[in-house]
Amino acid sequence: MSFGRPPTFSTFQPNPPDRGAFPLDHEGECKDQMMRYLSCLKLNSNSSTPCRVESKTYLDCRMNKGLMQKEDWKNLGLNNVGPESTGAKGTVEEREG
Amino acid sequence: MRPYLQFREMLASTRLGPTCRQSLGLPRSSINHGRPLQRSMSSRVEPDPVYLRRLQANRLRSQTSNNRTLLMYTTAVIFVAGGVTYAAVPLYRMFCSATGFAGTPITAIGKFAPDRLVPTEGANRIRVRFNSNISEALPWTFTPQQKYVDVLPGETSLAFYKAKNNSDKDIIGIATYNVTPDKIGPYFAKVECFCFEEQKLLAGEEVDMPLLFFIDKDILDDHSANGVTDVVLSYTFFRARRNKQGFLEPDASEEVVEASKGFAGYENAPKVEDR
Fold first, then answer.
1. Which NCBIfam families does the record match to this protein (chain B) (predicted)?
2. Are A76 and B117 in contact (CB < 8 Å)?
């Protein structure tokens, strides 16, 4: 919709992220999971799909350490990822324990 | 004589004015309430002045109230029409963004709906390259930890940046971002990142900053974005903080800010907040 403006005129405005900002991981509590994800990227020629398990593990770590709001996996698009994906809310540890 | 009298009584009960009666070809006469009718044979009977006055007053009152109602309705119609005209463009936009009418992407609901965050199998991968910039006033180093990630549309992916505060003071920074080419802008969505909010790094501290993003799969239906295979996501960190009103302001003392504007040697009035 250009409303009389040239049709190439872009009215796009950046929006803040849906769930706000990650709190800073000052202690480096989830650094291991991050390094695992990055090395996975390196092994798979930077394709993100094979490393979805690692990204899920990382976010799981953040949720466990209180560095991120607990969220349904399906809201983060990681619903069908990994062995522990039951789609239930909560963390891996909670479901296993 | 009898039916004629009944007709006069009926006229009286319907309260027709004298003119109306004249137009009906009836004699002008007053209507008697409770009093015996004057059965004079003269065709002209003097009207009862009290009744006439009451009649006039009634009519005046009903006319006034009718006029006032009409005025109210007219004013209301004018105001409503003016308001609707004024709001037409935003209303139309809301309508279009809610219904997807005229090709507007549906933004009012569900860009982040769970069923949209599913990788589109078989689609071409889009390479997202990462770039970082930093304001000269900010003594940080800020680098992406991976050069690029190949993602499928609809797939949420993680990326990491690393920031280090090289100074001996705690410093607040705020990151802004942009995406190139700009036609991918509407489709590049972040679930969670480190932008838009203050990040305080302690003196000498190094932190990892994650970023969870996805490319909306609507991009596959946008012909103008067909050829986009490479996207550059660029972050820039500024030395800034938000004040009480939520606006960005430089994260530095007043003297530094004034000196940067060339007013170092001048005595400035204190800021409103500090008075």
1. PRK05089.1
2. yes
